[in-house]
Design goal:
This protein is mostly helical. 67% of the residues lie in helices and 2% in strands. Its EC number is 1.17.99.9.
Length: 350
Amino acid sequence: MQDAAPGRVSFASDPLRPVRVWLYALAAFVLLIVVVGGMTRLTESGLSITSWKPISGTIPPLSEAEWLAEFEAYKQIPQYTYVHSWMDLDDFKYIFFWEWFHRLLARALGLVFLVPFAVFLFQKRLSRDLAWPLFGLFLLGGFQGALGWWMVTSGLSELTSVSQYRLAAHLTAASLLFVALVYVARSLSPGRALGRVGAFHLGSGWLLLALVALQIAAGGFVAGLDAGMGYNTWPLMDGAIIPKGMLVMEPAWRNLFENALTVQFIHRAIAYVIVAYAAWLIWARGRDGGFAGVHGWLPRIGFIVLLQVGLGIATLLAGVPMGLAVGHQALAVMLAGLVAAYMADMRRVR
């Protein structure tokens, strides 16, 4: 039996159960890739592999000559010249591992999708109306891989790290893929969700999801500029609630994406907006019928919002250690997934 938020439905005649399990597994795999991507960024490993070899690249260097060739290729880019010139071959092998592992997981995601997808098609578990959207998710995953290589190329000729614009696009696309997988999987739950859902609930839910997605994108800019490495105080920033120097670049719009002070301030400000908005949603729902049925998601979402804010503050105050930083990034994606599940259940009420 399954509690289908909250109606109980038997799995006896539920041919889509394996499909849901598969989609949730894919979402978990995407989350793993996001985590490893965060570790790749924090170890400055993302530019260690300077070529894209979709097939042969799955095998790491196996001989000393192959390792030396990879290291020599890395020596040709600005990051080695200006940042990592102190590295020897053993140091290079460490950063190479993280980038290779990140790419290997991304490639494996394609197989984890295609093989079960083909099996489900053969078993006729997927209708045409479901198969095409699922194939669209596969294309979104492929696009995410292309974004990853596009991001890497930005740091191979002039920059000493990847472009923050491309990093934000790469992270946001991965998060959207995770959200879409969770949304589709939850939408396939048997039975109907219970509760009263109107246009206000749907609209306010989509706005919350948009705010979380915007915050993830802003976090990508913070990571791309290493903006979290500075101004490690809270609630004040550079000694003030609203610090000076946020509009020093010309034209002014560049500050939103290239000024580390401004980028970190924006990330903080969006967090405050999300906290206030989530609190208002919970308050409004509490006055309008409580949290029975589908709206039981709201208190859980509110708890994760507070946990995420606390984790973000701890990450900042501690100087962005890897464990806290990766946890902060992963929890942001999970928060987006929770909101997506809430939206899917509200759709199942109608």
